[in-house]
Amino acid sequence: MKASIIRPKENSQLPTIPSQLTLRDIIKTLPSEVFTKNMTQAWLTVIVSVLCAAVGYLGLILSPWWLLPPLWVFTGTTLAGWFVIGHDCGHRSFAKRNWVNNLVGQLLMLPLMYPFHSWRILHNHHHKHTNKLGVDNAWDPLTVEVYETMPGWVKWWYQRIRGNFWWIGSIVHKVQLHFNWSKFEGKERQQIKFSAILVLVTGTIFFPTLLLTTGIWGFVKFWLLPWLIYHFWTSTFTLVHHTMSEITFKPPAQWNEAEAQLTGTVHCDYPFWVEFLCHHINVHIPHHVSTGIPSYNLRKAHESLKQNWGEYIYECKFSWDLMQKITTQCHLYDAEANYISFTQHDRAKSLKANII
Questions:
Q1: How confident is the model at residue 2 (pLDDT cuts 50, 70, 90)?
Q2: 266 and 244 in contact (C-beta within 8 Å)?
Q3: CA gap 184, 190 in Å, rounded
Q4: Which of 54, 188, 191, 250 could hold 184 in an S-S bridge, CB 3.0 to 4.6 Å?
Q5: Region at 330 (left for phi over 0; alpha for psi -120 to 50; beta for the rest)
Q6: Which residues, other chains included, contact 305 with Cβ-Cβ below 8 Å and sequence gap of 6+?
Q7: What are 233-257's pLDDT values in tens digits?
């Protein structure tokens, strides 16, 4: 199946937005109801996710071996939905009271071994600096110049994460960033420290208990493989949201907030069951225009953005060809070409060395 790229215009690049346009101008065009928190719908997403996970784990307990692979996929995708609800909590778009957001976010991210507050704070940094080269902390590509200064082992890891092992990118991101509270101060430091220690203590109790009661196979069957599927989806969502050869990153001096949030992210259509279980997080452009929009209102907000700003919106459909395009072409950032591949970089470097 070929990657189907939907563009309002024939050219591959999205048009440049008017320089006087602000993010507030874009937000004002959205209907007010998309910002409304509906607690019935919010708690329904929790109930759906919990029930689907229960069905998945019950199936893993009772089913024959040949049904395990689809059950791992189903259960892991459901856990990605848990993360999406925690994502809403982190943006305070789940409930009106922060203590409810914190409680639900902690409870749903804890089984995923993800520290809620460190993710919340660092993820909000990503939204504040979306596609700002060298500042954004979510799939921010390395420039050729920075890549050349890095040690060989770091280059090796970067090549893996930008290539065929993109699906573990969120694991590397978590381990690298989300357990270090020393870089923060005050209340943020205390919150991050609490979440990180809570995850570490929980893991210290949970994993030995699981191994003692179910053995190594039980650990793999009930936790590791669903957890890897969950990370496959969170890595894929994040990579696709912000990595296309047509999507630009800008250095701080050239960065424009309205342009970054409207044209710097991607709407990707996935199979219905994925979108349902993951609460439509793939509808990502309105989420970047305003993080105050709850996940269940994203589709309505997206339709409004398409009506008013359709020429600036990038849409695609999920497919293997799409992932191949991203993981074989979008490696290093280049100011003129947007992205070059590792192969292109190596050829250019070799040619330069031969000339010298």
A1: very low
A2: yes
A3: 9
A4: 188
A5: beta
A6: 26, 29, 30, 262, 285, 286, 289, 313
A7: 999 999 999 998 888 899 999 999 9
